[in-house]
């Protein structure tokens, strides 16, 4: 049974007696509701023993205080921590230290005959928490005692300011802030590299919820759930661009904090945890990725350590907090999967491997299976319907999210934790060297899981580096970027170092250790700053292009873009094109680069049939000369590109007569001489009234014909047809009629409802609840 008691174990060099006290706590017939341990400057293995007890859930939390802390102050700080964490840690305080040897019935006996008036803060005592707090709040009878209270407050403040966690956070924040100021990136509206401009909050919500997107000729492909994450967080933090800026500019301190708290279960002193977390935060491959606008790697850098710790907790934890741990980890996995699908899949595979390879009791094994199943299913359900896109387009796993790019293979540089061999990223080899030296010196079997993680990360990086595919939105076939898998390798290396106990060889002199640590810190800070500052990420420039639909020829190797609206934005290149849209864009691009007037003029007619009003070509393009009569120069952009206005009819909805409609059924594209009529309508949903006309006429939409389009004529469903090989056509009756055209939202809405239910359940279940009270009632 659990009694409303907060047990406080005050330790100082307790290696000899602490295991016995902890074991006695677990054997109590009535166990305390919470157990807090306070380590007051131990120099032996006390910190490691307490960390292991916390991992085994014998101790709820560990508080580290300076060696000069008195017993009463240690108890007061423990009570304050208990109230912050649980609001009501218990009505009674049970005080223990090295002189305490509680028998199995001791707590039950103390509760049976309590002394309500006792306020003696001594080991072995059971006192009321309310009486202790009144004692703490008692007014001082003399100025001297008031002064002493002030000194105590200043002392606590100094301990806070000198704590490893505070120093870690302050140092990393200063690094991120100085770097952002020096590079001129401090602010919102960042873009560059693989980061396309991020839209405002309303547009981001609309882009995510829409069933049809006017991108690349139109597609009904679901939008990436990364838009949902940015929209949800942006609703609180001031907009999606603010969220992106925080991730890219302050990913270093965020990763340091996440790594520090993720390592709480390891038997390691806070100072060592802070040093390891700081090194991980300054991982060069992560800084390099941030400077190149690779949000997927930045999110993985922040989330992988706590998610690995969460998976480990799911594998070993049982009891009342089990469901909350499963749901919180599933929620984090879903956020990771929204930006880095490959890393989401990798962590699921690691969880399954750990379940198979790690032994467990029958009851715990059954709970493991349920927990892992919930972990996988909930994290996937929170991403619906995006997992369907990933299954249909597995190249999303290879390339991740973001603007299309041609990657360079990492080759053997990946073994130095460098994705491209750049000088700034080569200091990642320090992680590998530290892990290798630790393994050679310590040779501890506890390091095997961490070593397995390193090997898994390198194998995954090799698979990404050795596979080439065309991006989901079309373009040049390319290998993937190894940044995400190398984050796994770095986590494994740090885990190996933190697992190191006492070396089996003579210890390194203290001065040499300090010098080596200083060299590593300086190297990581310098290389990370250079890597972060050297990327193309920068403030978003005002768009210098005409509004409306336009075809933009890429001066590099990528095919043309068909853009509707202000310009390409975050999420556009993650949409799977419909039908043959990617092939059509590639063919149009090739034709417009031809030196023959015939293909150029046919391509311009095809572009107009898709509703494009402009064509943007590089400065040296011959399209203006070869397409004379079909285009005219509209303006020149600052980069030298020429904006050409298409003189052909370029309405997104056109009415074609019977002869042209019959031609549209057999020809792949219209001739430049074709003369349809413009219809005042916008895609995807519109209603128009057509007058009486000849048999065989049709409405032609500047969109790919894919499942989801529907038409109703005078309220009755009407069959669709295909025009110019791939566009939507609606045959019209001879008589006057009202025509309603749209793209169905029912399947998308249904999946969004399932997703919303999954997110709501996971979020509510992840909120830590108060334990049910048993034993003595208040």
Query: How many beta strands in the DSSP annotation?
Result: 23
Please mark out the parts with pLDDT under 50 across 5 or more consecutive residues, or reply none: 140-152, 770-778
Cα-based radius of gyration, to the nearest Å = 32 Å
What level of helicity do the residues show?
40-55%
Q: Structural class given helices, strands, pairing?
A: alpha+beta
The helix count comes to: 28
The global form is elongated
Oligomer: single chain
Which strand order does the major sheet show?
3-2-1-4-5
Largest sheet: 5 strands, mixed
Q: Mean pLDDT, nearest integer?
A: 88
- Fraction of residues in β-strands: 5-15%
Distance between the termini: 15 Å
Describe it.
There is one protein chain. This protein is an alpha+beta fold. The strands form 6 sheets. A 5-stranded mixed sheet has the order 3-2-1-4-5, with helices on both faces. The protein has a 5-stranded mixed sheet with strand order 11-10-12-14-13. It starts with a strand and ends in a 12-residue tail after the last helix.
For this entry, give a set of tags.
disordered C terminus, alpha+beta, five-stranded mixed beta sheet, 778 residues
Summarize this entry quickly:
This protein is an alpha+beta fold and 778 residues long. Mean pLDDT is 88; it is low at 140-152 and 770-778.
Topology:
Elements (H helix, E strand, L loop, with lengths): L1 E10 L6 H9 L4 E10 L5 H10 L5 E5 L5 H16 L5 E5 L9 H7 L13 E3 H9 L5 H19 L2 H20 L6 E2 L9 H9 L16 H12 L2 H10 L1 H12 L7 H12 L2 H8 L3 H22 L5 H18 L1 H17 L4 H20 L4 H7 L2 H5 L29 H14 L5 H18 L2 E2 L8 E2 L3 H17 L10 H24 L4 E2 L10 E3 L8 E3 L17 H12 L4 H13 L4 E4 L5 H4 L4 E6 L5 E5 L6 E4 L1 H9 L10 E2 L7 E5 L7 E7 L4 E5 L2 E3 L2 E3 L3 E5 L5 E7 L2 H21 L12
Parallel strand pairs: 1-2, 1-4, 2-3, 10-12
Antiparallel strand pairs: 4-5, 6-9, 7-8, 10-11, 12-14, 13-14, 15-16, 15-18, 17-23, 18-22, 19-20, 19-23, 21-22
Helix pairs in contact: 7-11, 7-12, 7-23, 8-9, 9-10, 11-12, 11-14, 12-22, 13-14, 13-23, 14-15, 14-16, 14-17, 14-22, 15-16, 15-17, 15-28, 16-17, 20-22, 21-22, 24-25
